[in-house]
Amino acid sequence: MITIRPAVRRLLASGALLGLAATLAACGADGAESTSSATTSTASSAASSAVAVEAAAEESNTAEVVAAAEAFLATLDEEQLALVQLSYDDLEDKANWSNLPNGQVDRPGLSRGDMTDEQLAALDALLQAMLSDEGYEEVVEVMQADDVLAGNIDTTALYGDAAEDATNTTDGGMGGAPTDAGDGATPPDMGDGAAPADMGDGGMAGGGLEYGSDIYFIAFYGEVSTSSAFEIQYGGHHLALSAAYAGDTVTVAPYFAGIEPQTWTTADGDSYEPLAGKKAAAGALMGSLTDEQAAESELSMVYNAVVMGPGADDGSYPDDEGVLVSDLSDEQQQLVTDLIAEYVGVLDEAEAEEIIDTYVAQYGETYLSWSGALSTDDGSTYLRLSGPQVWIEFDMENGIVYDALHIHSVYRDKLYDYGDATQYAS
Amino acid sequence: MKRPASLAGLVRALAAVLVACGLLAAGAGAAQAHPAETSAVLMTVHEDSVDLELQVPVRQYDQAADAALDVDGGDVEEHAEELAAYTLARLGLADADGALDLVVASVTEATVNDLPTAVIEVVATAPDGSVDGDLTLDYSLLIDRIATHEVYVSMVSDWADGTVTDEEPALLAVMDWEHTSYVVDRDGTGWASGVAATIRLGIDHIAAGPDHVLFLILLLVPAPLLARGRRWTVATDDARADGRRALRRAGLLVSCFTVGHTASLALVSTGLLSLPTVVTESLVAGTIIVAGVHALLPLARRGEAWTAGAFGVVHGTAFATTLVALDLSPGALAAAILSFNVGVELAQLVVVVALLPALVWASRSTWYGTFRWGIAGVGVLAGATWLAAVIAGRDSVLSGGVDWVVAHPWQSYAIALAVLAGVAMGPRAARRVGSRRDADRMRIVADAGGA
């Protein structure tokens, strides 16, 4: 869970420090040439610290990301480089992400499974440079959920229920956890066009379903640079991250986050719920609606999936429906902001704060709406936030592998998808 | 003598025919299924009516209709009237002459994509007794409420539009809340389109049916030979005479086979005879084993024609399952049986023409016996493994190799010719050897090898 207030405090503190450090560094440089001006410079830096905070908010982690990206790229051989270095104008591959596992939708780029330990370490360092601590943790745990699906992780419980039978060996990665799950997660009654028997074993074969943390891909669009535009795409089943950089401007839309199973407990006794924050934020917001607000914000049609998921890149969004966020109470508006922060906050705090402020300023034109139900325990629940820029869909879905609910959610920016949404304007 | 040249020409003509068949076969539609939680509409167009099979996932229906059908099953039949009324309020079909009359024929529950699904059979009848021109489907079940729902519309068969296939129905369109009307373009010319399409289906059936081709080859291999006692021997020293005899014999066998399978095809297609698939496939596998043994040692010297006819009956029942699935009207079915047979005969003719000359020529070598034993062994082995696979309900252990042959007809044919050319290089089986004929043989082998 990402909360704004501490983040703001950290931002202000770090901004002030950065400002001070920057000014001192400048003084030092000046000092080498002209010692006489040193005292006046120091004095002015203290006086202008408020201005320095403003300036720091404009700064970004682009340089840090570029350095980490270059370090990662330096570990790759030529063949791998050819896979990951794609053209900035390669709109098809940029848009090639999905909520379906690889095998049904094959991702561009280089997969973790085809990397050495050294390369993986450099990749994880890059992800840490790109993302907030919470965002990095979320990415790692969503990947682990795929290992649970693949049967690569021993689990003692799924969806909060003991699943003794789910305990499986990692021998050859053929544990078949999905079909051995316990009560709360009985064997799959439904498939997404493929039989559950395709999973666990032989998942890699013949275009079948493929799960596992090693089937996550990274690709770079455009030259990695602190000045010109480039994008880093990272994802696999249930995760799609499009982090775009153009100098100091950083965006992370589209960002797709889904999860199945929602929770699990490993044999070591550790419990995981990667999207707990998003689910709690959506649940709190839905629960806060009065009957009147609920009636006003219910969509005219029913939605059982996200609308602006993979492939919905032509810039056309559904018409606005629902209740204006600015008509909600202050507390409710804060809950809206918390939900936004859950998505945008996958980025480092400084970048996230700036984007969130922009969205908050647009609450007078931002609509909240829903269909189905207003509960995260109901498979028909669908929640939508639509503003001049922000677009968030949070959807509770019926299980694919387990007979229990799972989550699909997507965040987009109508102007800054893939760094610049107009790329896809036909 | 013009024979060698004409044989080479024949091989070339044959190649052209095979190319044509390959092009025809390539026109077959791709398999289409619909994803979980989506609806499906399967259309079957007859002369005077259109059958619509709607597959509606129960859980989605509940949401769209504010209904509460039990997704664990059993509720669909109980709510048949409610579902029928819901359907008729949201479904329309029109041809060039206007709206068709819709009647819900049945509402049943089935499991589709592992999900409880209401299967609603609707019959749309043309008031003027004839379905003409483009069809306009207006469909808003579920998608009038569920913005994320999709409806996969497929065509099972449309004889008059030339849509007949033994593949999965071809996907026509995916409808959703923004696309609730779809026009099925029908530019077919009626019976001519149906006949042409069914001939093509018959050709495809042989082209993609290694069992029938293998059976045919097993009949052809001993065709140039004479059964003497319990052994096959070279008939005469005259290759030309042997060739004529082989051609007559192949012609007789293929004709008897045709008569047999036409008869059973008609019986099964019209519903007068019905055999379970496993029985049919077991019998076909059995005929391949018998034909393999026959290629080793003559089994029925005088009854060869009768045997071929009997085998035709068995194979015909297998063909019929394809035609039954088309669900044609009686008139169209009769035409379909005829044209399907024409297609089968054309394809068989191609196989005969492609292999018989080379077989005749190679049969004059002493090595032909070894070759014949090899082919017969392959036939018996393939038939036996297939029979075992059919009975066990699994893929044959040889299916990988068979798939390769089907997927690579040209390479397979080239390999067959190369093998036969090699066999023909062997020492002569006949006593009297003319130098002129010898030279001819060399030239033919070169021609065949270069084809």
From TrEMBL, chain A:
Task: Report the domain of life of the source organism.
Answer: Bacteria
Pfam families on file: DUF3500
Give a yes or no for keyword Signal in this entry: yes
Q: Where is this region: Disordered?
A: 164-194
Q: Which UniProt keywords apply?
A: Signal
- The residues the entry assigns to the signal sequence are 1-28
Q: In which residue ranges is the amino acid composition biased (Low complexity)?
A: 177-194
Protein name as annotated = DUF3500 domain-containing protein
Which species does the entry assign this protein to? Demequina litoralis
TrEMBL record, chain B:
What is the protein's name according to its record?
HupE/UreJ family protein
Organism annotation? Demequina litoralis
Pfam families the record matches? HupE_UreJ_2
The alphabetical list of record keywords is: Membrane, Signal, Transmembrane, Transmembrane helix
Quick one: signal sequence residues? 1-33
Keyword Signal appears in the UniProt entry: yes
TM helices/strands, residue ranges: 212-229, 250-272, 278-299, 306-326, 332-361, 373-392, 412-430
Taxonomically, what lineage is the organism? Bacteria, Bacillati, Actinomycetota, Actinomycetes, Micrococcales
Top-level division of the source organism's lineage: Bacteria
Q: Which InterPro entries match?
A: Put_HupE_UreJ (IPR032809)
